[in-house]
Amino acid sequence: MYDRMQTLTQEEMTRIHDAAMDLLGTTGIAFNEDEALTIFKKNGFKVDGKTVYFTEARVRNALSTAPSRFTVTARNPEKSVAVGGDDYVFVPGYGAPFITLTSGLQRESTMDDYDNFCKLVQTSRHINMNGFMMVEPSDVPADTAHLDMIFSSIILCDKPFMGSPVSKQGARDCVDMAAVVWGGMDKLRAVGPVTVSLINSLSPLQFSDEMAGSLIELARANQACVIASLIMAGSSGPVTLAGVLALQTAEILAGLTLAQLVNPGAPVVYGSTSSAMDMKTGGLSIGCPELSVVVSATAQMARFYNLPSRSGGSLTDAHFPDAQAAVESTLALTTAARNGINFILHAAGILGSYISMSYEKFLIDEEVCGITRRLLKPMEITPGSIDTDMIKTVGIGGQYLTQPKTFQLCRTEFHLTDFMNRQNHAGWKAGGRKRIDEFAVDRLGQRLARYEKPGIDPGVEAALADFVTRRKKG
Amino acid sequence: MYDRMQTLTQEEMTRIHDAAMDLLGTTGIAFNEDEALTIFKKNGFKVDGKTVYFTEARVRNALSTAPSRFTVTARNPEKSVAVGGDDYVFVPGYGAPFITLTSGLQRESTMDDYDNFCKLVQTSRHINMNGFMMVEPSDVPADTAHLDMIFSSIILCDKPFMGSPVSKQGARDCVDMAAVVWGGMDKLRAVGPVTVSLINSLSPLQFSDEMAGSLIELARANQACVIASLIMAGSSGPVTLAGVLALQTAEILAGLTLAQLVNPGAPVVYGSTSSAMDMKTGGLSIGCPELSVVVSATAQMARFYNLPSRSGGSLTDAHFPDAQAAVESTLALTTAARNGINFILHAAGILGSYISMSYEKFLIDEEVCGITRRLLKPMEITPGSIDTDMIKTVGIGGQYLTQPKTFQLCRTEFHLTDFMNRQNHAGWKAGGRKRIDEFAVDRLGQRLARYEKPGIDPGVEAALADFVTRRKKG
Predict the structure, then answer these.
(1) Which of A29, A276, A425 sits opposite B319 (nearest CB)?
(2) What's the helix, strand, coil split of chain B in %, to 5?
(3) Nearest CA to CA, how far is B257 from chain A (Å)?
(4) What is the pLDDT tens value at each position of chain B, 474 positions in all?
(5) B312 burial via Cβ count (<10 Å: 0-12, 13-18, 19+)
(6) Are A160 and A130 contacting, i.e. CB atoms less than 8 angstroms apart?
């Protein structure tokens, strides 16, 4: 439809592509990981030290094997999700070291928090996938925390889950644990991706050893990877968003090429949450409108390459689930969902430029996910759904409340929110004049009380627990 | 671009149109106003009692003279605005009897509040037009309140203002006062519309005497009118949104036809804030996603008729400027702006399903208006704006902060918000852990202190004051 948001022309996208190709061919991308360099060399790429140079033909070859859509299989097959094309998933916040308390103060997050978020995802009507590192738990050793998190992700929730890209070994652990659930590595390979992992470039123009190593392991096991660039315009990338798009495209295509060399057909996602520097503080702003401009362009560039796309969802710079948090989150999430992003990370809970998770914000954001799905559901426009006969029957000045059709359809035509306030002022006042974040506090208790652990083969659970114990010892 | 929000097909829009034509021809529209009935009769329309019947040919004839775009001239010509096509304006909240206090309690609004909102509009970077009845002042007599409000609107702000559709006489007063400003009725007619007034139908299928009478007066004086339908699906209209679209189209086209009979070429706007009934309370919900679905369809139907469009902006059912208010407001406002609405009413301040205005929400919503304008500003994508040379110069692992281009462009590339928080948690904590609505309290005082009354010819101001005094006596 007519849209005041910029539609990139084929010519403009080609300019971004050409610039990315130029950068890949002349400046190249540094991979701080030996196996990556070996793979590139083995495939005839020019490698100088840690820098890999790409020709357009090699990139196009990699693009030709990357799928445009894939399914992530859940251990409860009814909860499997599709990523690509018209299909999109909401995935919770990621990477927060802190929990925001209702006072606005923060405390370090723990494994209990991680488990709680697994339970919220399990009981969610709108969050489609379980996350990874939804918080960074402070009460377990950092080098084995990924084992605890993957264990919780699998045991406490039967939706698909995000994988562990913390290191080559961490990625291997994730694959091994998935293999336990699916009955061995062969069966896991046959089922296709059961995880999606987040591989970030190190802008400008690099991949760290952890990220490159994880990408190799995960692609090898046919697990899906988001390859994402998180450029801060004016700091780790050009000040112009056009320059940012070229730079991120170069980085993403380099990662994508590595994945396809490892395993042609490995599912990869064109990802970005590049954003702008705040001019007042010099820090990253992810609540700014430039983020949503990049989200829209990212969705369009991904389609240009016929790839699934990833962006952030409910992103904000605010430190409290207040009106600012909601403005910024709603803007980014709805832009992502409308414009065609397939994998919407940080769809719920994240606060303060990624620094913390808020239980209350999780519940509010989740409402927005539901509202957004409703917003995007097409209405039927047929003589039957218009029903001029009924309008004529009701006539001038009549009322529709008692029409049989109103009774019949009101529960399916109208979206029911969970706890958004629809009371009049008197009712709201009588209920204690609570802000929605205060309502969310009550709701949290109810949600966690309602949680039931999904069924799992006790042998599988024991084998997973055993794997974690052994790996911690070894 | 690809958009997951529904794009109505030509066939679907034709179905809505055909249903509206059917309703206009068979059930007709009641006009509770004698002059309206006389005008229809004089022009050969079938009129039965108060019910007027429309043929498609007569409606199409009216559509052929209605402009697709018009300019509303301000008394400060630099602040004139265009309504139609790619141009859109943000207009403040309308019709609120109450003011929401920072406690969430409400008090009755006064003329002082009205004046304060005039001052906020005058000092706004993002609100393009002054409103009318931004609050319903309780401390002046109701039958002459429109005179006080129009006087304040003109004197305290030099942006274009909304007109008074409170009654036939009220509309005439508005035109007379505008004529004082523009140097007489002939000069006013020559300058074109200087006001936009809100004419609401009385759903289903009626126009009240006040609204029909105002429409006649305003169209006669070549002042612009929004003709809007505010159907509550399931109560004052069909439960299906498709049915709502047909019903609202019939009502709007009936009003439009009257305006064009009075004055062919009179500027009219296809308007709607039809929404759904809340299933839990049975009341109107304007915070629900159905509202935004209707907003999108309204923009599309207006373009189908080649007319400017109107919807609500920052609409919410919440009674406090909290996260719920921001979610709902941001969703409706950005949908309106993206999808092509031209006249975005209630863009700032409104709370609680139209029941009150909040100063704090006004300032927060205004930020969203600014953010939305930035969001929709296209980026230049050229070799110059991409600048691969700079990216190559910075190279692998370099930084862009000290690049001359970063200094040069950072103030124009990045949107500067007014008071959205971009501090880190430590800074925010040191500042007292304020929610954005608490920051807005501080901001309000600064804004009102900054206000300066715009210059006006003392003779004009005296003549306006005299007009108001005379009309109050008479």
Answers:
(1) A425
(2) 50, 15, 40
(3) 18
(4) 899 999 999 999 999 999 999 999 999 999 999 999 999 999 999 999 999 999 999 999 999 999 999 999 999 999 999 999 999 999 999 999 999 999 999 999 999 999 999 999 999 999 999 999 999 999 999 999 999 999 999 999 999 999 999 999 999 999 999 999 999 999 999 999 999 999 999 999 999 999 999 999 999 999 999 999 999 999 999 999 999 999 999 999 999 999 999 999 999 999 998 999 887 888 899 999 999 999 999 999 999 999 999 999 999 999 999 999 999 999 999 999 999 999 999 999 999 999 999 999 999 999 999 999 999 999 999 999 999 999 999 999 999 999 999 999 988 889 989 999 999 999 999 999 999 999 999 999 999 999 999 999 999 999 999 999 999 998
(5) buried
(6) yes
Of B15, B414, B433, which has the smallest distance from its Cβ to A383's Cβ? B15
Contacts of A318 in chain B (CB under 8 A): 420-421, 436
Q: Closest partner residue to B206 among A329, A396, A405, by Cβ?
A: A396
Q: Which tokens is A225 given?
A: 């990877």
Chain B CB contacts of A25 under 8 Å are: none
CB-CB contact of A102 with A185 (8 Å): no
DSSP string, A377-401: SPPP-SHHHH-HHHHHHH-TT---T
Rounded to a whole number of angstroms, the distance from the CA of A10 to the nearest CA of chain B is 11
If you ran DSSP here, which 8-state letter would residue B87 be given?
B
Residue in A closest to B87 by C-alpha: A4
Test mutation, B281, B421, B441, B443, chain A, max A CBs within 10 A? B421
Angle of helix A111-122 relative to helix A436-450, nearest 10 degrees? 90
Structure tokens given for A364:
């509010």
Smallest Cα–Cα separation from B363: which of B93, B154, B157? Answer: B93
**Distance of residue B155 Cα from the nearest chain A Cα, in angstroms:** 33
Could you give the C-alpha distances from B148 to B164, B175, B354, in angstroms and in order?
11, 14, 21
Q: Mark yes or no for CB contact B204/A6 under 8 Å.
A: no
3-state helix, strand, coil in chain A (%, to 5): 50, 15, 35
Other beta carbons within 10 angstroms of residue A393's beta carbon come to 12
The Cα B144–Cα B313 span in angstroms is 28
Let me know: does A422 contact B280? Beta carbons within 8 Å: yes
The partner residue sitting opposite B391, judged by closest CB among A247, A383, A390, is A247
DSSP assignment letter at A135: B
- Residues comprising chain B, all counted: 474
Q: Are A361 and A351 in contact (CB under 8 A)?
A: yes
Instruction: Tell me the count of A-B CB pairs closer than 8 A.
Output: 460
Assigned token pair, B181: 């400003």
In chain B, which residues have their Cβ closer than 8 Å to the Cβ of A340?
1-4
Residue B239: which of A106, A410, A425 has the nearest Cβ? A410
What do you get for the CA distance between the two ends of chain B, in Å?
Answer: 58
> In chain A, what residues touch B429 (CB-CB under 8 Å)?
104-105, 319
Q: Which of B3, B4, B126 to mutate to test the interface with A (most CBs of A within 10 A)?
A: B4
Report the C-alpha gap between B291 and B338 in whole angstroms. Answer: 15
Distance CA A229, CA A232 (A): 10
Residues of chain B found within 8 Å of residue A324, distances taken between Cβ atoms: 326, 364, 420-421, 435-436
Q: What is the ipTM of this complex?
A: 0.97
Measure B348 CA to nearest chain A CA, in Å.
13
C-alpha Rg value of chain B to the nearest Å: 23
> The tokens of B63 are what?
């559509």
